[in-house]
Amino acid sequence: MTEDDTGAAAPYTDASRARLVMAYEACELADLARAAVPIAEHELKPDGAIRSPGVVLADAARVLAAAQRFLEAAAVFERIGGADWQLIGDVLGVSPQAARVRFAMAETAFREELLSREGTGTAGAAGEVSRLRAHIAREPLETALDLDDWVLRHEDGDSGFGTTPVSGGLVRRASRRRAEKHA
Description:
By secondary structure, the chain is mainly α. It contains eight helices and no strands.
């Protein structure tokens, strides 16, 4: 991979990075939900009772948490892409103020992650998610290529995605030299 391949020469737009975080969250959600579909051979007792009470509920709680992260990432992507709080509230069926209260901190954290070289350094699971999102925002091509592979492995039939279903949609910022030529 050359320097140009990494995105260092012409970094991706903030909206591309936000969309990539959303794609990652969708991938995580899909994997968690898909894992809940099979019924293990010994999951149920012969009388139909549950062998390990609480396990399926814990799995469902992880899926719900992933869905909430996906929703948050989608709201951040919309905001980075120019949507106002009115639009976000309308889509979610809440007031613009409620949408702002729900997602403004996530938007701020994302914008800070774009500026940060080391991530937020927060401890615990929330810190792990924050560091992961910061990595995705800083190294978008690496993540996009991984997601390309994921999409292609999970493709059903003729999707028409081509070989770069994620990385092919990312948009790079215009370099200053190119931007100055067109000005």
